[in-house]
Fold:
Amino acid sequence: MTRPDLDTDEGRAAYRRELKRVGWPLRLGGLVLIVAAAVLIVAVRQGWIADAGITDAGIATNVGYGMLALGWALFLAATFVRTRYNRRRLAEGL
Structure:
């Protein structure tokens, strides 16, 4: 690949679109896990888990916090991958 054309508006827009696709599955997976963990934790706190017949809410809370941590780890990994890609891509023209 050649260095992206950042001198024109069209080139910058194309490069922004390209960067948005880098690490997209990791970011989406992280977001899904974060939202699911938040829903699970709120459900435990509101007592909806106990109403559903799950007797040990502590396990559900721990699972929720584990999902939250994994979601943020995926999100940070996607940020790392995107930053590394951007550095490599911009250095190609040197």
Q: What stands out?
A: The CA atoms of residues 44 and 57 lie 6 Å apart. The chain has a mean pLDDT of 88. The chain is about 80% helix and 0% strand. The chain has one domain: 23-91.
